[in-house]
Amino acid sequence: MANHHIITGNWISAEEDYHGACPVFRKRFTLSGKKVASAVLYISALGLYEAAVNGKRVGDDVFQPGFTVYQKRIQYQQYDLAGLLETENEITVHLGNGWAAGRLGWLKLPKTSRHYAEKPALIASLVVEYQDGSTDLVITDRDWEYAPSKILFADLYDGETYDAGYEAAGWKPAVLFPHGKEMLIPQEGEPIREQNVLKAKLISVPNGETILDFGQNLTGYVRFRVKGEKGAVCELSHAETLDKDGNFYNDNLRSAKAKIKYICGGGEEVYHPHFSFMGFRYIRVDSWPEEIKAESFEAVVVHSLLERTGKFESSSKKLNQLYSNIIWSQKGNFLDIPTDCPQRDERLGWTGDAQVFIRAAAYNFNVERFYRKWLRDLKADQKPDGQVPDVVPNILPEYNNSSAWGDAAVICPWQLYLSYGHKEVLEEQFDSMKGWIDYIRSVSKDGVDWNTGSCYGDWLGLDAPAGSYKGSTDENLINEAYFAYSTSLLVKAGKVLEKDMSEYELLYQKIRDCFQQNYIRDDDLVCPTQTAYVLTIYFGLCNKPLLMARRLAEMIQANGNKLQTGFVGTPYLLHALSDNGYEDLAYTLLLQEEFPSWLYSVNQGATTIWEHWDGMNDKGEMWSTDMNSFNHYAYGSVADWMYGVAAGIQPDEEKPGYRHFFLRPMPDKRLGSVQASLKTKFGTITSGWYRTNGKTVYAFDVPANTTATVMIEGQTIEVSSGHHEYKL
Ligand code: BGC
Question: Ligand 1 pocket, 352 CB below 6 A?
Answer without folding.
Answer: yes
